[in-house]
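[retry 2/3] RimJ/RimL family protein N-acetyltransferase: previous attempt timed out, resubmitting with same input.
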Amino acid sequence: MSALALPQRSQRSALLPTRSLDFASQPTIRTPRQTLRKLKPEDQYRIAAAMQDIRVVRMLTSVPVPYASDDALDWIRLWEAGEINGWAYAITFDGGALEGCITIEWRDAGDRTGWHLGYWLSPSHWGDGYMTEAVSALVERFIGRMMGETLYAGAIADNPASLKVQDKLGFQVTGTSDVYSHSRGTMVPVIDTEVTFGSFMPA
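[retry 2/3] RimJ/RimL family protein N-acetyltransferase: success.
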């Protein structure tokens, strides 16, 4: 899971990108084993259930604790209302039930202001390459649409699986940041990464 990911209570960025990604018209993305589809309100229950799993939530720094289905629905509604600039996908295996989330959104983040990648996957599917497959497909679509843009990501330092996903796809480590983790109740070190058209290596 990307440490600076989701689902969180987001607000529209004050610094708007020169080119936007539109949730309302985002494309469905299909891989050999997955379908990445647009989030929908009924996903709130599976998102909220996943946020009760400490294995997931401890790797997502910005998730409020506790996190209920109403919080997930509020987050989805922000996407639907265009209050978040970007794309938000449910990771599925047949276009049906949500098994994880993956997003790209614009964030005001100092010298890392720009497009940020975030993701998580249900632990029952860890270790089978599904996250690498999903991230590769989304990043490839992003780069094709937003040529020349940098995509930022990262992971908490004790999350080697997420860092391995990023490394496989050509994300470069650019430094470290100390970020407050709501689930852990303390500051945690985050490894900052980024990828561009020139460094991306699709899986």
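[retry 2/3] RimJ/RimL family protein N-acetyltransferase: The chain is about 25% helix and 25% strand.
[retry 2/3] clearing retry counter.
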